[in-house]
Backbone:
């Protein structure tokens, strides 16, 4: 199979703190990973495309200094929400591109709540 | 640019009813088309896909046919179950890259 994990599944933090979310492809290597944000009752919004060993490509309107993405290995990408504020509260989902199956596999998501 | 439009929900049906969730797309070239499902409290899962015109994707009793002439990829199931209650997303992937373009999602509620 092709499994993608995310950690943590749920995090609550105080305003002004930073939070790191990990995305791992457990049984395949992924040169490309994606980070999405999902608002309640809304579709997925692509935030950035993460390529192993290079800088992430951010979508228009996404602050790269606020949402730091690091893809240091073929199985791990991290999203750090810096100086989080209540408006950053959301459901963050990662996916990893599996070139063998030629499709994206999704993590279970991380629910971030900023107080 | 490329886009996906799917019917707004929620869609509420009784068990064993026939299901159709409409999805139309706008794209240049020859995109691949996907239906993903998100069950309550779970991550997105690929339900089915089609990579070229007239292909039919099928899985778990669900079907969708890639119709290039009507730029559609409607999801159908002949007899829904309570366990089919979920949010369904239609998506396309351009033939030039890995990015997925998403529809807004349709929440499906099946009542016993």
Residues:
């Amino acid at each position: 199979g092709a499994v993608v994990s995310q950690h943590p599944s749920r995090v609550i933090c105080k305003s002004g703190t930073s939070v790191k979310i990990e995305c791992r492809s457990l049984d395949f290597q992924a040169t490309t990973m994606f980070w999405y944000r999902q608002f309640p009752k809304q579709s997925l919004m692509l935030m950035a495309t993460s390529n192993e060993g290079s800088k992430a490509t951010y979508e228009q309107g996404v602050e790269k200094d606020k949402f730091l993405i690091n893809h240091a290995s073929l199985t791990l990408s991290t999203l750090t929400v810096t100086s989080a504020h209540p408006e950053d509260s959301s459901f963050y989902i990662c996916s990893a591109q599996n070139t063998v199956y030629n499709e994206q596999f999704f993590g279970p998501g991380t629910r971030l709540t900023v107080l | 640019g490329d886009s996906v439009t799917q019917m707004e929900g929620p869609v509420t049906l009784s068990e064993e009813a026939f299901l159709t969730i409409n999805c139309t797309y706008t794209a240049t070239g020859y995109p691949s088309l996907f239906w993903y499902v998100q069950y309550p409290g779970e991550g997105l899962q690929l339900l089915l896909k089609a990579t070229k015109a007239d292909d039919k994707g099928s899985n778990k009793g669900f079907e969708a046919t890639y119709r290039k002439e009507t730029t559609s990829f409607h999801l159908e199931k002949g007899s829904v179950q309570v366990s089919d209650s979920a949010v369904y997303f239609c998506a396309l992937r351009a033939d030039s890259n890995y990015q997925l373009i998403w529809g807004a999602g349709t929440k499906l509620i099946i009542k016993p």
